[in-house]
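Exercise: predict the fold of this chain.
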Amino acid sequence: MRDGNNRYAYMQSKGKTYLFVIQPLLASGAATLTFLGVQYLFMWIEYSPFANEVFVKALTSGWYLIVLLLIFIYSVIAIINVISWAYYKRKLR
C-alpha cells in the first residue's frame, strides 16, 4: 500500500497534463527515433554505399507509417497512464 501511496503522490505532483500529454509524447518520440535509427543501421548494412539515399527515399515515400507508429505508441502509453491514474485514485480513497 505504501508503494501505491508514493506512486499516486508522484502522479498528483506531476499533474494530469504531464501524465496524459507530455510523458506519452516524449516516450513515443523516443521510441520512434530509436526505430528510425535501427532502420537506418539495417539499411546501412544492406546498402552500404547508398544507405543515405535509400533511407531518405524510404522516409519520404512512407512517412505516414512513421506518423501512425508515433500515434499508436502515444495512445498506448496515454491509455496505460489513464488506467493507472484511475486505479490508484480508486484504491486510495
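Check your answer against the key: Helices lie at 2-14, 16-46, 51-61, 63-91.
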